[in-house]
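Q: Give me the 3D complex with magnesium ion.
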Amino acid sequence: MDNEKFILTTLISSERIKERISSLAEEIDRFFQGDHIIVLGVLKGALFFMSDLLKEMKTDLAYDFIQAKSYEGTTSSGIVRILKDPSLELKGKKLLIVEDILDTGITLNGIIEYLKKKDPEQIYVCTLLDKRGRRVVNAEADFTGFQIDNLFVVGYGLDYNERFRNLKDVCVLEIKS
Ligand code: IMP
Ligand code: MG
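A: Here is the predicted complex, encoded as structure tokens.
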């Protein structure tokens, strides 16, 4: 692990992210016109995306966080554990889950199954990135920032073993060992 060498190449620049977020915020505001919603950010990856998106949104909202884990390194373990439970009351509420990336769909499915038990009115999903080609379970976002190919990406909240989250751009990570 210590001899790993990393090559980072920008895939989506911070400027492009910013532009896309303004149009996404408008789209979400139009959709939820007149509603009160609870936004649930999926820790830790959605931190920067959620923060930038919510500042552009005008919808009446409250926010909270949920944390789930299904990944070790670059492969999914297929098991979703809930590590942090939202503290707001979710019963009868419209929820908007904000995710960093939809890959196999396993994490999102696990989160949705878990949240359904709290009896919300409806659950919607917004993801910054979508690797649609990688889906192994049925999971779709209602709002998507960017479709990307099957590449392992880091930055703007996304990590490789907890590293690189604070990069401004979304970058492709290549590991040479
Ligand atoms: P899924 O369960 O396979 O859909 O994976 C979703 C989770 O895996 C995300 O919330 C990320 O934490 C992680 N993940 C999937 N693809 C990537 C990637 O390319 N870079 C970093 N994390 C990823
Ligand atoms: Mg992760």
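A quick observation: Helices lie at 14-31, 47-56, 106-116.
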